[in-house]
Amino acid sequence: MSHAVIIKKAVKKYGNFTALNGVDLEIQPGEFFTLLGPSGCGKTTLLRMIAGFNSVDGGEICFDDKVINNLEAHKRDIGMVFQNYAIFPHLTVAENVAYGLKAKKCPKDQIPGKVEEALELVQIGQLKDRKPNELSGGQQQRVALARAFVIEPGVLLMDEPLSNLDAKLRVQMRTAIKKLQRRLGITTIYVTHDQEEALAISDRIAVMKEGNIMQVGTPEAIYKKPENTFVAGFIGVSNFVECEVDGKNPEAAVLNIKDECSITCKLKKPFSGKGIISARPEQLFFDESNGLPGKIVMSTFLGDFIEYEIELNNGQTLQLNEYTKDVQTVRPDGENVKVNFDINAVGVYDAATQEVIS
Ligand code: ATP
Predict the structure, then answer these.
(1) Residues 6+ positions from 242 with CB-CB distance below 8 Å
(2) 39 CA distance to ligand 1 middle (Å)
(3) Which of the residues in the chain have pLDDT under 70?
(4) Tell me, what's the pLDDT at 180?
(5) Staple 300 to which of 82, 133, 273, 307, CB 3.0 to 4.6 Å?
(6) Ligand 1 pocket test target in 21, 41, 47, 162 with most atoms within 8 Å of CB
(7) Cα of 229 to ligand 1 centre, how many Å?
(8) Which of 12, 23, 34, 44 to mutate to test the pocket of ligand 1 (most atoms within 8 A of CB)?
(9) Which residue owns the Cα nearest ligand 1 atom 31?
(10) Which ligand 1 atom minimizes the distance to the CA of 35?
């Protein structure tokens, strides 16, 4: 049965260095949950604490309502898939998958059937008698997946399982993993530093930075409503533009940008002072009547959209994407333009706290 994984104020220290700084998470049974963040932010550390490979220096790790801080790894109801597959080179594909079942004392007569079923699930049934060195990287990763699934764990933990594969295979395998996870409904915690992979595969994502959780949300919420400038900058492309906010009336706050452009937006509560606008390339548009003056320095036609690099008067560059279905022609390099913001879509942040205020 799939477990909920509840993490309460989890702390991990390596000597004086705090790798996890009081992390709180609630992962639902059957959920596909991803830990995403730059190298060194503590993703693997947290995953290994959930697996039981790392001690817990503060707080609690629970499966459902049971605290498992001190439960040995092999007694936790988990399956694990690593970046380097960690399959046994001297065993065949079928023997690799059977290994975990034997260790779990599965009745002998049930093992061949379960192995066959698991190999069919990851579509490598025909390779069952091969040794790992006779398999491609993608096939080896499927063996590792089958071996993790076959023991029907309550929680499946995956640490960058696709990072050794080439780009095309990575995309194929992530779709395969997502489908399999949906079908089996196993609570899955997945570690990656690849934001596109995280957006594509997850029900929800936790974005981490330096041992802290910066935001938890669905891929859509993380992309469209970043709660701070770190998440806005880490996920997708963001154009950050400084502004002066006059928001005594939060219903009609005025954002003044470099005395060159002023726009009105809604804020959550009154705020006046230095602000930052974060705009995705598709949230900028050309507007001759009101906008930041600049010049096109590069236009790139990419089929469904045109990517423009625009240099503002102060030297800052912005990326603006225009969908080709909405326009007739590509604007030439060197053209003087004005750039405005889709104010209902962009995020506005307090420059001091870097937290969202819109
Ligand atoms: P990556 O994407 O590079 O794998 P990560 O987010 O998984 O990064 P962790 O491996 O969890 O990061 O490491 C978090 C921090 O803890 C890093 O700064 C790392 O150097 C440090 N760290 C990890 N393991 C140890 C250890 N055994 N001793 C000391 N410091 C460690």
Answers:
(1) 257, 258, 274, 275, 276, 277, 351
(2) 8
(3) none
(4) 86
(5) 307
(6) 41
(7) 23
(8) 44
(9) 14
(10) 6
The answer to whether residues 354 and 230 touch, using CB atoms and an 8 Å cutoff, is yes
If we measure between CA atoms, which residue out of 192, 191, 210 comes closest to residue 40? 210
User: Which atom of ligand 1 lies at the shortest distance from residue 191's CA?
Assistant: 7
CATH architecture of 5-230: 3-Layer(aba) Sandwich (3.40)
Quote the ligand 1 centre to 125 CA distance (angstroms).
37
How many angstroms is it from 49 CA to the middle of ligand 1?
12
What's the whole-model pTM score? 0.91
Residues at CB less than 6 angstroms from ligand 1 = 14, 17, 19, 37, 39-45, 193
pLDDT score recorded for residue 301: 93
State whether residue 98 is helix, strand or coil: helix
At 279 the three-state DSSP class reads strand
- Distance from the CA of 12 to the center of ligand 1, in angstroms? 10
Kindly list the domain boundaries of the chain, sorted by start residue. 5-230, 237-350
- What is the structure's pLDDT at 338? 95
- Interatomic CA distance for residues 187 and 185, integer angstroms: 6
Q: What is the pLDDT of residue 173?
A: 85
- Residue 296 near residue 331, CB atoms below 8 Å: yes
What CATH number is given for 237-350 in this structure? 2.40.50.140
Number of residues written out for the chain:
358
Say what the pLDDT of residue 25 is: 98
Q: What's the token pair of residue 83?
A: 């970046």
Domains 5-230 and 237-350 share a fold: no
Distance CA 57, CA 274 (A): 39
Q: What pLDDT score was predicted for residue 100? A: 85
Q: Give pLDDT, residue 82.
A: 84
d(CA 226, CA 215): 8
Q: How many CA atoms lie within 13 A of 85 on its CB side?
A: 21
